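Project outcomes to date are best conveyed with an example. Our students and postdoctoral researchers have been running inverse folding experiments weekly, and each run begins with a structure described purely in tokens. The record below, which covers 463 residues, was selected by the lab manager from last quarter's runs and is presented without edits.
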């Protein structure tokens, strides 16, 4: 546990995961400095709330333009700090700009007051903002996950304090610069470079009215309890162990291409990627071999080199944890068709790894695998597949590949998750709500539901 003295002198230290070498450190704000910064953003709430919807929308569109102008620098910083391939980083910035534009175009309509019948001459519900929202964010998609909370919260009239992961301080600083360049007032958004120990104390700040957190389920439980103790609403987007069901009547070539993409994007460091694949027995051997071929062709290397498919994992401890999960599963009887070894090269790379004959109880079935590892399990029937798919504490995303409408309907009725994809990839889209159940969290980001998470559903009754 950090002492008060250490809180005052902390720095943010990050490592280039491609080389294993230290990056420039950042002096962290003290707790008092962080509290003062929150006070300034909270003081800006009245002015930002009074800004009209059209004006807020215009500023958000300018944010989108600024992000696009700086997309290559942002992508390069992500590659440097957490290992995301630059081509994926550019796509992430483009998607984030779209998110800003989406709420600029639709936010006012989503928050239009609604008339409700009652004994009043006029009764309705309106949606005023809550105040200052604290966003505590991870490293794996530092631009996209920031916009998921910033765009709707700002469009609704809230002010925002951003606490980025210590792995990505330069990316976070550059992102907030884009906001300021676009005309967002400095007392409406602030990026606080603080340690995790200080961030946890920021939740208790009286001017923090709500919390948005994306990260591990374990950390989410802590955040949730602290926010609840202060009676503050929270949105939690946590881990996932997403199942995918592949039936024999599916378009196999398309399905296998998408499954490979889903599992390998961002070197597998994605909450909503396919992690547990259930394959009908009649095509099981064919599918395993086809996946082995696809995985074996993927090229790992410097994320700034666009010829590479995968970069490194973000941290050494994350790579070591992933290798533990793989090793324990192999020891329990899973077969490794490719990958599964620790590279001798510098950096925190892990090879695309295919584990087959995976059963419940094995580590890769029970735990979230945050890296380029796919587990494959044979199934006899759709009902068996659905039972195994739901045999998890997580509930973020799920998918099924089949041309059988009865099987599709059965899956949609049965799968227990926040998102279900049929014959496609589970993905986040600004137009659609995203979130989970169980250990995957609660609340929703994106879509019309996302902008209503941090507003007051206020009833008005007029005699």
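After processing, the design step wrote out the following sequence:
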């Amino acid at each position: 546990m950090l002492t008060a003295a250490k809180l005052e002198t902390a720095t943010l230290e990050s490592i280039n995961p491609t080389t294993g070498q230290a990056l420039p450190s950042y002096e962290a704000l003290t707790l008092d400095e962080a509290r003062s910064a929150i006070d300034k953003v909270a003081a800006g709430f009245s002015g930002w709330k009074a800004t009209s919807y059209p004006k807020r929308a215009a500023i958000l569109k300018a944010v989108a333009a600024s992000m696009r102008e700086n997309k290559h620098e942002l992508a390069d910083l992500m590659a440097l700090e957490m290992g995301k391939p630059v081509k994926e980083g550019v796509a992430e910035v483009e998607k984030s700009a779209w998110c800003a534009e989406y709420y600029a175009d639709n936010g006012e309509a989503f928050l239009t007051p609604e008339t409700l019948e009652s004994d009043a001459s006029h009764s309705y519900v309106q949606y005023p903002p809550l105040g200052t929202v604290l966003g505590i964010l991870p490293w794996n998609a530092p631009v996209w996950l920031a916009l998921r909370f910033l765009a709707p919260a700002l469009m609704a009239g809230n002010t925002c304090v951003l606490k980025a992961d210590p792995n990505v301080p330069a990316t976070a600083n550059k992102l907030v610069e884009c906001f300021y360049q676009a005309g967002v007032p400095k007392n409406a958004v602030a990026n606080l470079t603080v340690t995790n120990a200080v961030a946890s104390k920021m939740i208790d700040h009286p001017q923090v009215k709500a919390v948005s957190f994306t990260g591990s389920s374990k950390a989410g439980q802590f955040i949730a309890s602290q926010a609840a103790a202060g009676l503050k609403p929270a949105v939690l987007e946590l881990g996932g162990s997403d199942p995918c069901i592949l039936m024999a009547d599916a378009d196999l070539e398309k399905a296998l291409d998408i499954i490979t993409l889903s599992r390998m994007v961002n070197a597998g460091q994605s909450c909503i990627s396919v992690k547990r694949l259930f394959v009908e027995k009649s095509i099981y051997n064919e599918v395993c071999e086809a996946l082995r071929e696809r995985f074996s062709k993927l090229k790992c290397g410097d994320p700034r080199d666009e010829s590479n498919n995968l970069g490194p994992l973000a941290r050494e401890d994350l790579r070591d944890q992933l290798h533990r999960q793989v090793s324990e599963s192999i020891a329990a009887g899973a077969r490794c068709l490719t990958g599964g070894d620790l590279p001798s090269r510098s950096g925190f790379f892990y090879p695309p790894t295919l584990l087959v004959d995976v059963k419940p109880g094995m580590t890769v079935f029970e735990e979230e695998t945050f890296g380029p590892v796919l587990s494959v399990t044979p199934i006899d029937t759709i009902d068996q597949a659905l039972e195994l798919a739901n045999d998890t504490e997580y509930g973020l995303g799920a998918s099924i590949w089949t041309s059988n409408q009865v099987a599709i309907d059965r899956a949609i009725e049965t799968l227990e998750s926040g998102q279900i994809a049929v014959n496609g990839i589970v993905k986040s889209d600004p137009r659609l709500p995203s979130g989970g159940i169980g250990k995957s969290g609660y609340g929703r980001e994106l879509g019309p539901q996302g902008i209503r998470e941090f507003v007051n559903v206020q009833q008005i009754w007029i005699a």
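DSSP finds 17 helices and 18 strands in the chain. The radius of gyration is 23 Å. The training component of this project remains on track.
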